[in-house]
Amino acid sequence: MKCFNDTYEYADDVDPKTNQYGIVDFSKIEYVEARYVKHFDPENNGNPCIEALPRPRSLEECTLDYFKPILGYSMSEIQALPSGERIYRLNQLRKLRLPIAFDYMLEVEMHNALIRSYENRYQFYDPEIPVWMAVDRSNGVKFPEQAKNDTCGKYITNKTSSVSGWSLLGGSGTGKSSTIDILKSHYPQVIEHPLTKGNLKQIVFLHVSCPANSNFKVLYSTIGREIDNALSYTASVYQNLLSNSKDPISTVVQLIQNFCIGIIIFDEIQEIDFAGTKSNTFASLVTIGELSGVAIAVSGLESAYSKMFKKVYTARRVGKVISSNRYCFDKPSLKTLMSLIFSYQWFDKKVSLTDEIVDRFELYTGGRIDQLITLYSYMNYEYLISPENKRPEINGKFVDLCIEKYYGDMRKLLAEATIHHKKNGDFDGRMLEAFEKVKQNLNNLLGDDEQADMAEHLSSKETLQAMNSFANTQSNVVQNVQKLFPQFEIPQIIETLKTVYNEPGSSCLDDSVLSGRVIQVLLGTTNSSSLEDTSKKPKIAKKKRPDANLLKQNLLNVYHQQ
Questions:
Q1: Is there a single domain that holds both residue 183 and residue 248?
Q2: Among candidate residues 165, 172, 174, the one with its CA nearest the CA of residue 101
Q3: H or E element at residue 51
Q4: Is residue 467 assigned to a domain?
Q5: Count of other CB atoms within 10 angstroms of residue 559
Q6: Would you say residue 446 lies in a domain?
Q7: CA dihedral in degrees (533, 537, 543, 546; nearest 10)?
């Protein structure tokens, strides 16, 4: 393998509990300056694009990172509020994120795809040629001043086989998008490699949301837009370049090589028009992967599978297919999710979850997490708008009432579509349309203010208790720290707590003791020269897209790799 002409040194002060960039949510960072950690595979030593990547998240870290409880929720405080204020606070349910069986599987596939992508290519650069001079500028595209120091890298494939990525396919509302968002937060999108002359920017991933009813010409333009966003260009430089390119495939391949792009994630892939010429088929994306060495990943409805993969070799090139549906029709998993959702209540008094209620939710939502929360929001809303002296009883009949009132004549349709899925294994398009309509209605009311084993562990009583325990701990620690040190932001406190919580014996500590340890780490991080040297106090990026040992032992089992 040819390495960059510039040599680099390995960081020797990396905390094994974090990564070489410290405790940071990368979704809020524009870029980081590369820090290198020696890879365990000797064949990858000297490969800067691999050794600058954060290490993969452990099971413990995934467990905590994919669980987003409602911060600051207190049932006793909620019950003391008037109904109007409770309706307003009902919007907090939108922030709840629960771990799902496919989360860790996607984590593993993402990291493996990046490693395969970068070890599949030769690497070199020309310090005399910036990127803007290396691309075709015949269409008059103008490059901003900030681009003139970006060295032209060449990271080209050296193998005949393409790099396999991953496919995340399943019904609407099963948690695909939120999982991908959390997945991305572990990786800096742009890593800047300092060279003797200039700098080389490595774009680790592109997340391309496929425009509705668009062809591949529009898709290529969207890829250019995401490159502009990753580089923080306010002008549409690469979007215009690809929009006007006579050979968009070759242009995309060149940009992938120049910016060392590791993986391209195509989201909502079902929106693409797959009919047309060779350049307008999914095979063209596979061709891009073969020519450039980039990994290709897709996410979307399962109905897109047959459209995308007309030939077996095409499906094989995209890699492992992960289903986001499997947990939906697993009754124990449904009960666990419902129990966690019911731990947040806006009723006058605590309501117990019954099998009757669970059965109704299974019938009307198909077990999809998004619709579980939407229907539960309707239940709380309907309860709160009723007269205080005539509050309804929360039972199966009340769920029926909410369906009749807010889902209209779609009750029968939803039930039929759910049965259709159980028999045929795909989601009825009518049900997806119905779900989107009722979700929008709720927004208007409230204001715009290998998975079987994993599912078995997720449904355990111990797991449920552990998750509720951690949710309370997180709220208490955030409150304690901010009282003493208001300068620390909530996301920073939460990330630090996760690190502290994973230390041996820490999960058994009292919340006040944990708060003290978190403060110690935060103060140490603030004064740490290594963090400042690492990221040069990374700028906060413009908003890119509308983010007890019991917990460690039982909740971890959710993510047992198959």
A1: yes
A2: 174
A3: helix 48-51
A4: yes
A5: 26
A6: no
A7: 60
117 DSSP β-pair partners: none
DSSP structure string for 243-275: HT-SSHHHHHHHHHHHTT--EEEEESGGGB---
**How are strands ordered across the β-sheet holding 320-323?**
205-209, 263-267, 295-300, 166-169, 320-323
Q: What is the mean pLDDT of residues 481-493?
A: 87
Say how far apart CA 372 and CA 370 lie, in whole Å: 6
For residue 179, give the CATH number of its domain. Answer: 3.40.50
| Residue 531 falls inside a structural domain | yes
Question: Are both 184 and 43 inside the same structural domain?
Answer: no
Least confident of 209-213, 241-245, 271-275: 271-275
Let me know if residue 81 belongs to a domain.
no
Q: State whether 287 and 225 are in the same domain.
A: yes
Residues with Cβ within 8 Å of residue 173, at least 6 apart in sequence:
368, 369, 370, 371, 435
Same domain, residue pair 235 and 175: yes
Give SS3 for 331: helix
Element (H, E) at 153: strand 151-157
Contacts of residue 439, Cβ cutoff 8 Å, sequence gap at least 6: 370, 371, 374
Q: Copy the structure tokens of residue 167.
A: 């496919």
Residues in the chain: 562
Say whether both 58 and 155 belong to one domain.
Answer: no
**Domain termination residue (choose one: 269, 302, 323):** 323
Taking Cα atoms as reference points, which of 317, 314, 224 lies closest to residue 274?
314
Domain boundary among 305, 323, 341: 323
Which domain range does residue 47 map to?
Answer: 26-62+458-559
Question: What digits encode the pLDDT tens for the residues 73-125?
Answer: 999 999 999 999 999 999 899 889 998 888 888 999 999 999 999 987 766 55
H-run or E-run covering 511: helix 511-526
The predicted-structure confidence for 435-455, as pLDDT tens digits, reads as follows 566 555 655 555 433 555 555
Is residue 35 domain-shared with residue 141, that is, in the same domain? no
Q: What is the 3-state secondary structure (H, E, C) of 350-412?
A: CCCCCHHHHHHHHHHHCCCHHHHHHHHHHHHHHHHHCCHHHCCCCCHHHHHHHHHHHCHHHHH
96: left (phi over 0), alpha (psi -120 to 50) or beta: beta
When divided into structural domains, the chain yields a total of 2
